[in-house]
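Review box. Two proteins, two foldings.
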Amino acid sequence: MRRQRRRCDLGRPRSVSFYAGRFLRPRKRAIAALKDRIRHLTRRKRGMSLEAIIRSLNPLIRGWGNYFVEGHVAELFEDLDKWIRMRVRSYVLGRPSMRTHINRWMTTATLHDKLGLVSLVALRRRHLSPAPG
């Protein structure tokens, strides 16, 4: 069975060479695929609790972030974190039963600390920090 290369390529990191080494960056197609998957998981008509939505998002964010954490991704991770928080907030705004609690769920600290949404920036920070001991 022959597989189409375009459909099977998950977006390997592309590298940009320079005189002292290489920068790795995710391809635009890999970023678009991540956003499409997050859009699917945060559709307003899913009928799930916010906690369930975050539980379904976390493995995706963690896996994608850990795969690309080695690269030159600081700005990209910040932008994606903002975009993911916007999608989660939009989910809350689209659910009439959740609108009454909107003030508690709108802050970044609440989303990450209390509700447990994984942050790509935090994954990168954890990866760059020296190992204890």
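Next protein.
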Amino acid sequence: MAHVDEGFFLPESPRWLASKGKVKKALKIMSLMAKVNGKPLSDAQEKDILRRLESSIEDAKDKKPIPPKDVDEELQLNVKAQIKDSNGTGNSRTTGDDGKTEAVVAEADVEDEDGLTAPPSPLGLFKTPNLRKKTLLIILIWFANQNVYIGLTYCGPQIGSTLYIGFFLSSAIELVAYVPSLYAMDHFGRRFPMVGLQIVGGFFALLTMVLPESQSTATMVCFLIAKMAVASSFLIIYPYAGELYPTVLRAYGFSLGSYIGMTGLIAIPFVVYLVRKHGLSLPRK
């Protein structure tokens, strides 16, 4: 029920509005987006965008509909042409003001041997060395992060003084975790916050196993820190995985990582059973 009124407050997609001829509404939302990102549009820029939107709509009325596959191919060809025009080569990197190399467009990951765009398929995730490396790393990261996250969630009720307190604290800490995670993604990127949070989460998760059962408060604190760090890094995986793949392979890569990440759920109930039977701490001589 709390989400019923969201449709009255969330802005509509500018792309959809423009496709329906509602260019002024689309421009209004685009102007708001630019303002929120600290790049407000001038009156001249708004007029230019409005003119181009209206011109595109008029041109579309005089042309036959273009199949989605042709649109994707055309967009890829345009991007590659722009890269070659700006760099003189097909390289996919540019150098920022600070001298650091920034990724702009993925290399021609979906090209076949003749340089033509290959039809998208799950096998495209392993077509080039670059894509194979990305895919295998995403699968590994997703598998580790998702299983640690769900394992901690299931073990939470076993750590608190009661099942209800343990479950409540395990769930409430996620609300705290998402705030610094969103801030870190905006200011420090994806890679380093995700890796750092996974290291912190793994360290404190192992620490809960080393502490004796008598140290229940310290165990709970370490558990909550681990859950907060792992939940934060898990949140980063979703946009990070989507941004690494070309558009035509994004859905395949995202689905594969999520699917393999869920396979560990087969063993997690048995882990929870062992925790309930033998306790969280490691056995001592």
